[in-house]
Amino acid sequence: MIRIEVPGNRLEPAERFGLDVLIDLSRLLVAEQAEVDVVRITVLEHASSGSPVADLAPGAALHRASGEVGITIAALAAVAEVAGGAVEQRSLAADRHGRVPAGENPLVAAGRSREPLVSVLAAELRRAAVAVAGRRPVRLLVPWPDNRRWAVVITHDLDVVEWWGFLPLLRMAELGRKGAWRLSARVARAARRSIGRDPISKGVNGVLQIEAHHGIPATWFVICAQPSLRSMVSGDCTYHPDAPATHRILSAVTRAGHEIGLHGSFETGGDAVRMASQRRWLGRLVEKPIEGVRQHFLRMRPGSTQRAMVEAGFDYDATYGFPDRNGFRLGVADVVPAWDAARQVILPLDLLPLVWMDRALSKYAGIEEAPLWVQDGIELSRQCRAVEGAWVGLWHPNLTEALGFPGAEPAFVSLLETLAHDRPYFASAKKVVEWRRFRRSVRAARVTADGQVLLTALPGDHPSAIEDASGNAVPAQAHRDRSNGAA
Ligand SMILES: [Zn+2]
Question: How far, CA to CA in Å, does 241 sit from each of 167, 197, 252, 283?
């Protein structure tokens, strides 16, 4: 348990956002009122160490005293710069798809994009609070439901449904350019064998089967725009959302209990009206409200695209990953609220950053061995586990031998097996966001003199699980006489 002792007018809005994010990621339970002494969190006016990454270093950011942990204001500002995406929101640079180039990201610039630095600082804040507590009671929120210590979200972007016959040809051309002739010949043989079959449905069904085996509820992002010659040539929208083939895939995915989100086509990146109409159309097709979105090609302008998502009615965005590498674009292995740097406000939208994508190494680093893609994903999953956070991965269901990717399907099987071995909380993006919103809302409304904790939280059917500093469950009473509901 902690008390936050920061006068309301002391912090700029971005610094306040930084403090809220750090406390949330730390899992420290905030007491609103305590009849016993608890650890105090204060802020310190130290000069910046020169860059957001330097300011996030725990040694510079945190200062321990008896019963008190001080956090520098520079560190709080750095959280908004990195986890709030403020640096990228200010950037005017664009690659050929209009995306902010990875080099503009402060973590990439500092060579630290494979570490969730903000999550690491939050974990250090928790350790510091426990270390200075002495006899003061320490209570933490459990990281995830079902007694799980970390989470895994498996996502799929449905980029191709119709006209898949071109895919092996495109892939052979790509491999030809790289001089991978043996692989190219294998692709040609597999493509000949699959003529007349429906390799896309086969790929989707293969993925559904493996996930059913592990009991994994995945999240599928589906394009819902009218294709045109132009959209097909540019790799934007290539299939009809209401075609029978699309319908079969959507039904199979829904029947399997997976979540469906919108894969926003290129034109939606800065256009809330088009985004809203695609969201409604997809909602009609699957007869469910669509709550999440990920932009196709990860094409977005940080800040303005998220404002459009809010206007279009989305609850969460799963776009924040690097298009050309794997890692932590926002420095977190977790869900964070979206920060609007231009207006200095928190948006009513949560961000679930993408950590790993199947083809990042193949497309941009020329690595064609699927086991190496998986190895890269597993390496990053260890970082997520270490901070008890969430690993979000993207697997394209069209990565099959018939469509140009020999060895990809067995690699996906081994990826899921390895992840499942470490017993994560496997859940859809929607569930993970819901849990984190709930966890973020929990407060100790009161701590009595004998150490009893009364909790308040947003309404929800989540267990109000708290634990002590060693991770042992602690009973807590829900505080029921409040209008905002009880834990
Ligand atoms: Zn896509």
Answer: 19, 20, 15, 11
Q: Which residues touch 147 (CB under 8 Å, ≥6 apart)?
A: none
Going from the Cα of 226 to the center of ligand 1, the distance in angstroms, rounded, reads 15
With 0-12 CB in 10 A as exposed, 13-18 as middle and 19+ as buried, what is 413? middle
Residues 6+ apart with CB under 8 A from 481: none
Residue among 389, 329, 264, 409 at smallest CA distance from 91? 329
Contact 334, 432 (CB under 8 A): no
Q: How far apart are CA 40 and CA 57, in angstroms?
A: 21
CA–CA gap between residue 311 and residue 279 (Å, rounded): 11
Q: To the nearest whole number, what is the mean pLDDT of the chain?
A: 91
What is the rounded distance in angstroms from the CA atom of residue 18 to the CA atom of residue 143? 20
Phi-psi region of 103 (alpha: psi -120 to 50; beta: other; left: phi over 0): alpha
Residues found in the chain: 487
Q: Kindly report whether the global pTM for this prediction surpasses the value 0.90.
A: yes
Q: How far apart are CA 263 and CA 282, in angstroms?
A: 10
| Residue 272 Cα to ligand 1 middle (Å) | 19
- CA–CA separation, 435 vs 462, rounded Å? 8
**Whether the Cβ atoms of residue 455 and residue 487 lie closer than 8 Å to each other:** yes
CA of 296 to the centre of ligand 1 (A): 4
Ion ligand 1 — residues with CB < 5 Å: 157, 159, 296
- How many other C-beta atoms can be found within 10 angstroms of the C-beta atom of residue 176? 12
- Taking the C-alpha atoms of 359, 280, 94 and 85 in order, what is their torsion angle to the nearest 10 degrees? -90
> 319 alpha carbon to ligand 1 midpoint, in Å?
10
Give me the domains of the chain, ranges plus CATH numbers. 2-141+442-478 (no CATH), 151-432 (3.20.20.370)
Residue-wise pLDDT for 135-185, tens only, equals 999 999 999 999 999 999 999 999 988 766 666 667 667 777 777 777 777
Percent of the chain with pLDDT strictly greater than 70: 93
DSSP for 127-183 reads HHHHHH-TTS---EE-SSSTT-SSEEEEEEEE--SS-TTHHHHHHHHHHHHTT-HHH
pLDDT for 483 equals 41
Report how far ligand 1's centroid is from the alpha carbon of 487 (Å).
38
Q: CA–CA separation, 284 vs 306, rounded Å? A: 23
